[in-house]
Amino acid sequence: MILVGQFDSPFVRRVAIALHHYGLPFERKVLSVFKDFDAMRRVNPLGKVPSLILDDGDTLFDSRAIIDYLDGIAPADRRLAPAGEPERRRVLRTEVMGIGLAEKTYERGIEVNRRTARTRDVDWQARLETQVTSVLSWLEARAPSPWFHGQEFSRADLAVVVAFQYLSRVVPHLAGHDTYPGLAAHRRHCEALPAVAAVPDSPDEAQASGWKPET
Ligand SMILES: N[C@@H](CCC(=O)N[C@@H](CS)C(=O)NCC(=O)O)C(=O)O
Description:
This protein is mainly α. The chain has nine helices and four strands, in the order βαβαββααααααα. It has helices spanning 10-22, 37-43, 63-73, 87-113, 122-141, 155-170, 181-191, 194-197, 203-208; strands at residues 2-4, 27-29, 51-53, 59-61. The radius of gyration is 17 Å and the shape is globular.
């Protein structure tokens, strides 16, 4: 399998961590959605990452769809979502919040980094930051101990930890570890897992494709 995308993307990292967790070997094709836009669209017509090129030649798009597929073929004792209800719907609900947190953080980055001060929409930026802090409060209130649901690391934990790591790198003042002690402890528990530790958030890959930290 070939995973397309960079490890500064929380969505690409989600898939890579899941592949490590399942013990599935993969190669990586490092393409940037900005620098390599034409090559990217030859893999995914949307020009988005992640994509996963399967051994039979099929290509899957979107981290949630990819992890859904991988979880379906994983051995039962490695699956990242429970089969039974109501546990399953609760894991998926928290996963949606984690993915949404990463999406809103990413959208805010586009607003701030890819526009000039004159064209930036400050009201839109404020709305995005409200969405980010609102989700953080919702997650913090669920007090993961150490996992969000049950006794094992799940898709919920995976989505939240990569989003929180990403937010901590790109907008550290919105991710105060004193403000969100439950999420900070959750992050430490997740980072102690070999699969998470194997795929560090990569500011190097971000900077190589033109990203600059906010000043
Ligand atoms: N919901 C998608 C989000 C993927 C996403 O937004 N990826 C960003 C990179 S971090 C992207 O491809 N951006 C380019 C674009 O939206 O045109 C997923 O979970 O895979």
